Amino acid sequence: MKNEMTLLLFTIMGIDFAMDVEHITAMVPVESLTNKKSGIVWFHEKVNFPQTPVVYDSPKALHIVSGTGPFHLIIDAPRDMPVEVPAEQINPFPVLVNQFTKDSPFRAVYLMEKRMMLVVEPLAMFP
Predict the structure, then answer these.
(1) 35 within 8 A of 22, measured Cβ to Cβ
(2) What pTM was estimated for this model as a whole?
(3) pLDDT-based confidence at 1, cuts 50/70/90?
(4) What is the CA radius of gyration of the chain?
(5) Gap between the Cα atoms of 67 and 124, Å rounded
(6) Alpha carbon distance 115, 125 (integer Å)
(7) Residue 19 in contact with residue 7, Cβ under 8 Å?
(8) Of 118, 99, 115, nearest to 107 (Cα)?
(9) What is the pLDDT of residue 127?
(10) Which of 3, 32, 51, 56 gets the most CB atoms within 10 Å of its CB?
């Protein structure tokens, strides 16, 4: 048995992200959330996004279950299928960088197709 993680890859305004699918129970169109009054959070609201305004071209809602309850996290441009990644290919941040990210949901970097993906821990967004 290999030590692997299953990552959902997505891009927001040219920045690549990866998220472990462990706590994601569904991905639905944002339009399906029209009757929801709470529990909807846009990804850029939970991270210090470098560009404003943030434009989502093809947003999707991830249904995530955490200790504080379920919520929908809106991301943009997810790949159709998650990818299986050997755990040793996910690189934790170096100590120097980690001191700036310890209070953020960013945990590591994954290199794929010569692109750097920031690995995000969704439960860190909702402690």
Answers:
(1) no
(2) 0.88
(3) very low
(4) 14
(5) 11
(6) 24
(7) yes
(8) 118
(9) 64
(10) 56
Which among 86, 85, 68, 71 has a CA at the least distance from the CA of 24? 71
Per-residue confidence (pLDDT) for residue 63, from 0 to 100:
93
Print burial letters for 24-48: b (CB count within 10 Å at least 16), e (below 16): beebeebeeeeeeeeeebbbbebbe
Token readout for 75 is 């991301």
Provide the β-strand partners of residue 90.
110
Which tokens hold the place of 50? 């470098």
Q: pLDDT tens digits, residue range 72-104?
A: 999 999 998 999 999 999 998 877 776 777 778
SS (H, E, C) the chain: CCCEEEEEEEEECCEEEEEEHHHEEEEEEHHHHCCCCCCEEEHHHHCCCCCCCCCCCCEEEEEEEECCEEEEEEEECCCCCCEEEEHHHEEECCHHHHHHHCCCCEEEEEEECCEEEEEECHHHHCC
Listed residue (106, 112, 111) closest to 93, CA to CA? 106
What is d(CA 22, CA 100) in angstroms, rounded to the nearest whole number? 25
